[in-house]
Write a structure and sequence with these properties.
The protein is mainly alpha-helical. It has one domain: AhpD-like, CATH 1.20.1290. The protein is built from seven helices and no strands. Helix 5 runs antiparallel to helix 6. The longest helix is centred in the last third of the chain and has 24 residues. The two termini are 19 Å apart. This is Carboxymuconolactone decarboxylase family protein. It holds the Pfam family CMD. InterPro entries: AhpD-like, AhpD_core, CMD-like. It comes from Streptomyces lancefieldiae.
């Protein structure tokens, strides 16, 4: 196997951090922001981001039951409320585009639970974590690494 770079441009790192921070702030729900980032990271198999965001989610007070059942949120019943379910469905639709565009019904359900500004920030957050996932997975950055 060829060596993979661990380097990331300071400009790229700074820009993605700023975008993520702005998206989280605009969403206004730190726990939900972490659930969304964890779910996208599960779908993208990004161990680095999973490790990071699971820790942050716990710090934000997200319950262990939600974290344990996040991978099966659709079958988890009342563990996730309607707003969380809409955000997770949108996260999956934006993350996994192999089946086409984000379905109208998924977008419309999210729009019922989020104000337009919040929805824009949610989409930006999902887009940002997908970028981080791809950067970390491509370079095979291991969980807990500080050299990236």
């Amino acid at each position: 196997m060829s060596a993979r770079t661990r380097l990331l441009s300071d400009g790229v790192r700074s820009a993605l951090r700023a975008l993520g921070a702005a998206a989280k702030q605009g969403l206004g729900d730190p726990g939900l922001a972490e659930l969304v980032q964890i779910r996208a990271s599960q779908l993208n198999h990004c161990a680095f981001c999973l490790d990071m965001h699971l820790g942050i989610a716990r710090e934000q007070g997200v319950g262990e039951r939600q974290l344990d059942l996040l991978d099966a949120w659709e079958e988890a019943g009342e563990v996730f409320d309607g707003r969380e379910r809409a955000a997770l469905a949108l996260t999956e639709a934006v993350t996994v585009l192999t089946d086409g565009f984000v379905p109208d019904e998924v977008y419309e359900e999210a729009a019922r639970h989020f104000e337009a500004d919040e929805l824009a920030h949610l989409i930006a957050l999902v887009t940002t974590i997908n970028s981080w996932n791809r950067l970390m997975v491509t370079r095979r950055i291991p969980p807990g690494s500080t050299a990236w």
